[in-house]
Amino acid sequence: MDVRDYFSGQSPFKWVKFVDSAKLPTRWGMFKMYGFTETATGKEHLALVYGELDSATPSLIRLHSECLTGDALFSDRCDCGYQLARAMENIVKEGSGVLFYLRQEGRGIGLINKIRAYHLQDDGADTVEANEALGFSADMRDYSFCIGMLSFLGISRVRLMTNNPRKIESLKQIGINVIERVPLQEGNSPYNSNYLKIKAKKMGHMFDESFIK
Fold first, then answer.
1. Is 167 annotated as a binding residue?
2. What is written in the cofactor note of this entry (predicted)?
3. 67: domain CATH number?
4. Burial class (CB in 10 A: 0-12, 13-18, 19+), 9
5. pLDDT digit string, tens, across residues 122-169
6. Cα(209)–Cα(213) distance, integer angstroms
7. Domain containing residue 7
8. Bond prior to 12 in cis (omega within 30° of 0)
C-alpha cells in the first residue's frame, strides 16, 4: 500500500486516477471505455480504446474536448460533432487507436459561459472576441493531465488527429512524441464557415484553403 500510494503521487500518475473500464459498442465498432478522474479538478475524462495498442507503433489518437451542443445536440455552429464522428471512424479503419474525451466544454469556459459567448456571437462578435469580452482567453484548455491517461495506456508516441497546433505543442511539452499530425477537416456549413475562418486566422488552426473558402 505504501509503495502504491507513493507512486500515485508521482508524475505522470499524480495527474489522474483510473476508476474503471467497460465495453462501449458504437455504430463503428466495439470500444473499451476507461474512466479517469483528474486529480486537480475532479473532472471526469474518458479514453475510448479500439483494438490492441502496440507500444512499438505510434497510436492514432484524438484529444476531443467535450462539446455538448455539437456532440450531442447536432449543432452546426461548430465542427466538433463532425470531428468526433470522423475520429472514431478513422480509429476503427486504422484497426486500433484511442479517442480521449476531455471534459473541457467551450474551450474550457464551461457550458453556461459558452451560451453567453454564443449570444455575443449572435450579436456580431466572432468566437475569439466573444470569449475575450467575457474575460477569458480564446482557449482556456489545459492538456497537461493527459500524460496520466497516456501513460496508463502505455502510449508515448502518437499520430495526432487535429488541426490545432496548440495540441501538438501541449503533447510535446509533456513528453509525448507526436510522430505525425493527421488532419481532421469535417463539418463546414453555412452556419460555421466564419467560425472556421476565425480559428484559422486568429488561432492558427491548419485547414486547407479549399475547406474554409
1. yes
2. Binds 1 zinc ion per subunit.
3. 3.40.50.10990
4. exposed
5. 999 999 999 999 999 999 999 999 999 999 999 999 999 999 999 999
6. 6
7. 3-104+141-203
8. yes
Please report whether residue 82 resides in a domain. yes
Catalytic status, residue 20: no
Cβ–Cβ under 8 Å, residues 96 and 59? yes
CA-nearest of 71, 82, 137, 84 to 109 is: 137
Does 45 count as an annotated binding residue? Answer: no
Active-site annotation holds for 4 = no
Position 58 pLDDT exceeds 50 = yes
103 assigned ligand-binding residue: no
Q: Flag whether 117 is in a domain.
A: no
User: Binding residue per annotation — 193?
Assistant: no
- 64 known member of a binding site: yes
Residue 125 lies in a domain: no
Catalytic residue (choose from 141, 142, 157, 181): 141
Neighbouring residues of 66: CB distance < 8 A, sequence distance ≥ 6: 101, 102, 103, 104, 105
Tell me the pLDDT tens digit for each residue of 11-51: 566 899 999 999 999 999 999 999 999 999 999 999 999 99
Position 154 in a domain: yes
Total-model pTM: 0.91
